[in-house]
Every structure is written in C-alpha cells, then in structure tokens.
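ok so for the tutorial part 2 we go from a plain amino acid sequence to predicted structure tokens. step 1 is just haveing the sequence, like this:
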Amino acid sequence: MTSLESLPPADFYHYEHLLSAPERAKLAQLRGFLAAEVEPHATGWWNDAEFPVHILPKLAALELSGPDRRAYSSLFAGMVVAEMTRVDTSLATFFLVHHDLFVQALHDFGSQEQKDRLLPDALALKTTGAFALTEPEHGSDVAGGMATTATRVEEADGSVHWLLNGAKRWIGNGTFCDYMLLWAKDSETGQIRGFILDANLPGVTRTRIENKIALRTVQNAHITLDDVRIEERDRFAGIGSFSDTNVLLRGSRIMVAWQAVGQQLGAFDVARAYAVEREQFGRPLARFQLIQSQLVQMLGNATASMALMVRIAQLQDDGGGAGPGAGMDQVALAKAFTTTRMRETVASGRSILGGNGIVTDYKMAKIFADAEAIYTYEGSQEINTLIAGRSITGMSAIT
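step 2 — the prediction. this is what the tokens look like for a chain of 399 residues:
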C-alpha cells in the first residue's frame, strides 16, 4: 500500500517556501501544537458544541497574535489562519475574531489609555474579545440600517456616559468573551460609534445560538442591550463613522479567504488519505480514474486559491511602502473566488468518502458543514461578488 508520508504535500507548488526561515519554524511549531492539542479532540468539541477554553494559554504561548508587530509577513499571518482552519475551522474562527477584529481595533482605534489597560491581557488571551456588528434584522445592510443606539448622557458635574439599547446577533465568542467591540448609532447625530463593552455589565443578556450545522464549537451569541451604561473612557475615540469598519473588515475578510484555503487543504488531506487506504472492488479507491480526477480537481482548486492569496499578501506588504496595497475590491474578489472553489472542493471530498462522508467520525462531514459558514460570513459570496462587480463595471448592483 502507498505510504501517505511518501506523497507530495497539499502545498503542491511549495508556497510555504516563500516564508522566511523563522516563519517556517514558527509554522512548524503551530503544526505540532495543532497535532497534539487540537486534532485528536476537535471532532468531539464540534459534536458537543463546546469551546475548549482550557487550551487558550497554550495557544497564547505560541505568540502568533499581532504577527505584523512581531516582524512577520502578511503571508505568514495568512498561512497561520489557513493551517488552523486545516485542522479545526472553529479554533481558527475564534482566533481571527479575537485578534483580527477585537485586538486589531484596539491597535487601530484605541486611545493610549485603552491600549495600556486592555492589550496586554488580550494578547496573552487572559481576556477574550468579540466583534458585535451584525443585528437580528441587519446583516449585509447594517451600514445603513443599524438599529442599536447609543445615547449620550452628560451629568451635572460634566461627566459623560452612554446608554446602549438594541440587539446583536451571530456574535462569535459572544457567550464567554470578556469584552466586545460593539457598534451603535448615536441617537442624536446618527453617527456610527464604537464602544469597548464589558460583556458582564448590567443590562447585557447573552444567549447562545443553538442548533447550528456549522462551526458548532464556536459560541455564537444573540446579545440584548437594555439601558447598558458605558463610560466615556470606553468609547473608541478613533471611530467616527461606519467607514472605519472597513479598516477591520478588509483585514478579517482576507483572513476568511485564507480560511477557505485551509478548508480545502483539510478536505484534500482527508479525502486523499481515505482514497489511498479504503478498498473497494479489491483495490484502493485511489486506483480508480474518477477518484483521481476528483482529487486532482480538489488540489487544483486549493492551489489556485492559495496562489491568489499569496498575491494578496504581497499587496498587503507592498501597501506598507510605496506599493498599491490590497484594495477592498481585490479582497472581495479573493473572498468570493476562494469560497466558491472551497464549496466545490469539500463537495468532492464528501463524495469520495461516500456514506462515511456524512458522519463526523471520518472528519469530512465536519469540514463539509463548516465550509457553509465560511461561504457566508465576512460578506456573503454574493455581496463580495457585487463589490468586485461594481469595481470592474463602475456601476453598483447593490444600491
């Protein structure tokens, strides 16, 4: 029988070798952590819809957060998320919500006092964060339809606080996080404001969203806000309009596109191993032409997706100098393309496993289901397609 160790890697064109030697060593360290601490347990966590809070200290010890501030490249940051997703999409989703949305917001929009007060524990994962933007009635149209309000109250002594009212939905990490970056509309001016919300304040109700078919390990919450008092010092002074969210959403959208790469690599890993080891009609599945065709298409999709994301990473790093950077339209195209290819890839993987592809015991069912969440969040495939379409035609089909 063919040894899996003797076969070429899923990184068929060796994009990993574009990383520096320290980055490759750090990626290998991450793989060791995932193999020992996550892979043996990920399916059980998913089946039970439980988040493994106990592994966060070990994850923090890898010092993967804020890679740009540790002199790592954008390519390394993307490959970290892809590698996590390859093993467990839910853990990768926790990581990017906490680091690429909440922690990044502190870096980009926080005052020095807010950074000094909150960043050390957030980077060490002693505290966890969430990003509360989506609402029960507003997803893709939340920019113009935000219903959550923030009312400014000035006391007789001149001190200021805010009262938050409304609801948020699909908030990842929302059931257990310590803080949320919460977006609300100023009830007087109509401006969009951002707040550092202590999730345990009076008036905050958190309810776990049940019965999910994807990302079951991720603790998504429905958040209700009833006259929640928040001090002026916890308002993001650097956020003055909804356009400020684009700084964060552009980065997180890139990472979700990297998740689509990782999801395909994971599907390929599982499908190839199964095809090599499983026998039907007296020979391994991998000996059948149709199975080889599916595996090649899966690898082609994953490789094309990775190639696109490697270029996005190069544009990200170019943007720090005199280069063009990665525009929101380019990021939208990347997210739309990679998630479309991902859907094809995981469907082929599930097909290769036959009936065993619909039970989580063989991993593929989890991969297949989690792909549906990646396809939708951080801008659905359709919305990202229309953003790219607006760019290449000069005409908007959204509004």
